[in-house]
Amino acid sequence: RASADAPCASTPGALADGTHIPLLANLGDATDASSALALGAEGVGLLRTEFLYLDHQAAPSVAEQTARYADAFRPFTGRRVIVRVLDAGADKQLAFLGHEHEQNPALGRRGLRALREHEGVLGDQLRALVAARDLTGVELGVMAPMVADADETEYFVALARSLGVSSVGITAEVPSSAVLADQLAPLVDFISIGTNDLTQYTLAADRMLGSVAAFQDPWHPAVLRLARLVGQAGATAGIPVGVCGEAAGDPLLAVVLVGLGATELSMSPALLADVRAELAGHTLAQARELAALAVAARSAADARAEVSRRIARS
Ligand code: PEP
Ligand code: MG
Fold it and tell me: Which amino acid positions bind phosphoenolpyruvate, per UniProt (predicted)?
């Protein structure tokens, strides 16, 4: 392993055999954008747009949204920027998407489900994203949250393309989307695995609930097997597969995810350096070996221990 000469922040993410693994930033706001670049982000893998509008009673206009997105995009001219359309519901309510009391909000009307009922809001957001792309010259990708199946994927892809988005993706965070990844990958330009929700839903453990926090562990082999399905489907379809959940920022798990087929990783900018250093210490063949150990483990703790032990021996 090459951690002694850790690559510097301006070096693109790469494995020891030279395989490029773009390292991207998760952003919730335009103010993080410049610091993400300084920390070596090659682009943005997840801009969470709902945080921009949590205090809005009425839906923001196209012009207002265009200005906000252009601010966030500007430092990344010429680079890839993936924006997730509003992921409201569950713990993040947006007044202008309406909301009724739900007994299990994580299993309720959130993400694309809510946007489909407010197609005007979704359409305005897509128009503003395209306008901000054209103002700033970023390579825009737009993805939908909480997509469950081909019907929802086709709905979103058709709408986004009709409004001028040329790279359209989905997050794989509902387990059904991972199970069906072979059907969904041919419909989209990229997939991004949202390991936070994928873990919550796979282990049936509310990510907001401290008493079941131990289940919220993306090292769980059940979660990793779903990630593998997405990786395989992406490779067959010839599209990039990213990871934008917290798992991408755990250096060892990042290597495992690459071994499962992830081709790019997006994380909180502060974590980029450690992930970059770890990736540089493994070839793709080694990452695949570690991934095979992890998916064969019996628990999250076993997967972590097996992978750590193998690395310590090498
Ligand atoms: C995820 O679910 O992994 C994800 C990246 O989205 P969020 O944490 O915003 O739900
Ligand atoms: Mg999510």
Answer: 48, 84, 196-197, 207
The interface pTM score, or ipTM, of the predicted complex is 0.99
Q: Is 136 in the pocket of ligand 1 (CB under 6 A)?
A: no
Q: Which residue in the list 131, 226, 244, 300 is annotated as catalytic?
A: 244
Q: Has 244 been annotated as catalytic?
A: yes
- Count Cβ atoms below 10 Å from residue 219 Cβ, excluding itself: 24
* Nearest CA, atom 6, ligand 1: 194
Segment 79-120, tens digit of pLDDT: 999 999 999 988 788 999 988 899 999 999 999 999 999 999
| Ligand 1, atom nearest to 195 Cα | 3
Residue recorded with tokens 């993706």? 169
Structure tokens at 267: 């994380």
SS (H, E, C) 28-62: CCHHHHHHHHHCCCCCEEEEEHHHHHCCCCCCCCH
Ligand 2 centroid, distance to 3 Cα (angstroms): 31
Q: If you take atom 8 of ligand 1, which residue's CA is the nearest one?
A: 196
pLDDT means per 10 residues, the chain with 314 residues, are 64 96 92 88 97 93 97 96 94 88 93 96 98 98 98 98 98 98 98 98 95 96 98 98 97 98 97 97 98 98 98 90
- The annotated binding site is made up of 48, 84, 173, 196-197, 207
Does residue 227 contact residue 262 with C-beta atoms inside 8 Å? yes
3-state secondary structure of 165: coil
Distance 196 CA to ligand 2 centre (A): 6
The string of pLDDT tens digits covering residues 226-242 is 999 999 999 999 999 99
Closest CA to 119 of 74, 79, 158: 158
- Ligand minimally distant from the alpha carbon of residue 91: 1
* CB burial string 179-199: b at 16+ within 10 A, e below: bbbeebbebbbbbbbbbbbbb
